[in-house]
Amino acid sequence: MKRPQVIVPLFEYEMQACENLSKAKHDFERTTWVLQKPAQLKILLAFGSKLFPHASRLQNAYQNQVMARISPEPLVSLLGLVLDVLPEPAELQNVLDLEVWTFLRPDLSHQILSVGLQVWPGSAELENKMGEYYTVRRQMDLALYHFRLALDNDDQLAVVRNNLGVVLAGQQQYKEAIKHLETAAELDPGSPLVFINLGNAYLVSGQMEQAASAYQRATDLDPALSNAWALHGLSSLNLENIQLAKASFLNAIENDPINSLSQQGLGVIALSQELPENALPYLQAARILEPADAVTRLYLGQVFEKLNRPRDAIVEYEQTLLMSDDPTLAGLAKAHLENLQGLVSAGISDYRGGAPNENP
């Protein structure tokens, strides 16, 4: 299963240029952390001129980069312009969503967010964005800290509840994660991504019926979401609803032929129906798409056993042991491997799977 992803909302908006820079410039005289950084100036000018197409000063600055080497003054003016025309912190968040993050400059994003939080210290939107910054950098304790600050400032923002729930689920705090994700779904019932994240939390906590219901809701909202279909198939398979699982996996592949989880699921279904020849192409496709997936390698080993290809099976079980630190998965692979190695050493060629056949 793919790791749940933090939702980062995108916004569309139009903004007018600001004529008066003096007050904003004064407010930002203290921002010495950017005064001598021409590379940052270039980036800021680039997205500034895009955001404010009528601002001739920005256009001229962007076209004449040599000014960055002459004086830091335009940078202060630009920062002043950006925040002077953005009366609400949500709009600063829009700037970050649309521009800074796409420049792959998280350091610059953090600096702008820090200034934004000085200007608007009670902004739930900016605290949430800071949490997303730390989530991307995998600093989960700091991410949780800022998501909780955002929640304290505004407990009615679905994106905050969602992000907090995702990070908590990743830290195996399932009860609290589900509480926040359920609230996010109530606050934003039209978001399929919220329901996918809610389903993920249910799934990893073993609540299969609730997971299947959440994924079904996501597919109802957006029938083209292949990952939602695949996860619905996985939860249905765990509930032993084979027909529903197969239909969901096929829907996922129809929307995205390279959905590895669905290829794996269809292979598992065929294997459970004693159709190894049907399972093989699905599991081989899953292996190509996700070569480091130990579960796929274990199932491929079982298929090769049933097809009387013990040496191929041995390779897959060895790869399972190399790739997985899950003791259950490793135990199954080891049992199959030891049995097969003994048979191969004894010269037995007609063998169709006698090792334990439990599913992971």
Please render the helix and strand layout as text.
Layout: H1 22-27, H2 38-51, H3 56-63, H4 73-84, H5 89-100, H6 106-119, H7 124-136, H8 140-153, H9 158-170, H10 174-187, H11 192-204, H12 208-221, H13 226-238, H14 242-255, H15 260-272, H16 276-289, H17 294-306, H18 310-323, H19 327-345
Helix pairs in contact: 2-3, 2-4, 5-6, 6-7, 7-8, 7-9, 8-9, 9-10, 9-11, 10-11, 11-12, 12-13, 13-14, 13-15, 14-15, 15-16, 15-17, 16-17, 17-18, 17-19, 18-19
Structural write-up:
The chain is mostly helical and 360 residues long. The chain has 19 helices and no strands. α9 runs antiparallel to α10 (174-187) and α15 (260-272) runs antiparallel to α16 (276-289). The radius of gyration is 26 Å and the shape is elongated.
Search tags:
single chain, 360 residues, mainly alpha, 19 helices, elongated
Shape: elongated
Sequence stretches where pLDDT stays below 50 over 5 or more residues? 1-43, 45-89, 96-104
| Secondary structure: helix percent | 55-70%
So how many helices?
19
> What's the N-to-C terminus distance?
13 Å
| SSE pattern, N- to C-terminal | HHHHHHHHHHHHHHHHHHH
Structural class: mainly alpha
Largest sheet: none
Mean pLDDT: 75
DSSP strand (E) fraction? Answer: under 5%
The beta-strand count equals 0
Q: Radius of gyration, Cα only, in angstroms?
A: 26 Å
Q: In a few lines, what is going on in this structure?
A:
The protein has 360 residues and is mostly helical.
